[in-house]
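for the recovery benchmark. tokens below, seq after
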């Protein structure tokens, strides 16, 4: 079973996803964040405290399929951070010199989707379960800066592509999950 859990910032989406596996021991938490400052370290520490200590953690943004082992449950948190990290890796130089053109946007989107699709394939091949957490980025203001608009557009399209592959999709708002697929 592949599930996508989508919601805004602090909507309760990660808590909802974690609760789905809370009684399970054979869970791999796929963490996509990079700790580059104290605030991010606090966020990572908070997430670690909120999940069972017995869960295995796989940290990374690339080769996500390598997280798949003997465990039967996988939780990727989150696709939005994965997107921003890979987008940064691929566009860092162009961001500072020229706008990110549509060709490069497509390359970034396809690279990220390839990572997620390889994870989905590895999980499905073994008959395991995967929950992917992501942010809904289209409900707010249009970002003022080019890179923000590019990120929003890439993330929105990725969410659509992953939702298409998912068996179930939940929208979480105010801590309340609503199944939309």
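predicted aa per position
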């Amino acid at each position: 079973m592949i599930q996508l859990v989508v919601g805004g910032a602090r909507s309760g989406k990660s808590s909802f996803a974690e609760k789905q596996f809370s009684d399970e021991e054979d869970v791999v938490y796929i963490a996509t964040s990079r700790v580059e400052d104290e605030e991010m370290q606090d966020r990572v520490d908070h997430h670690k405290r909120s999940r069972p200590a017995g869960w295995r953690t796989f940290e990374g943004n690339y080769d996500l399929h390598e997280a798949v082992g003997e465990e039967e449950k996988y939780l990727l948190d989150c696709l939005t951070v994965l997107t921003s990290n890979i987008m940064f890796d691929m566009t860092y130089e162009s961001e500072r010199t020229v706008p990110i053109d549509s060709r490069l946007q497509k390359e970034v989107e396809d690279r990220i989707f390839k990572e997620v699709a390889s994870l989905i394939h590895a999980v499905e091949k073994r008959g395991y379960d995967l929950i992917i957490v992501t942010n809904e980025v289209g409900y707010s203001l249009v970002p003022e800066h080019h890179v923000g608009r590019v990120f929003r557009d890439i993330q929105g399209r990725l969410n659509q592509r992953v939702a298409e592959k998912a068996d179930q999709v939940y929208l979480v708002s105010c801590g309340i999950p609503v199944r939309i697929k």
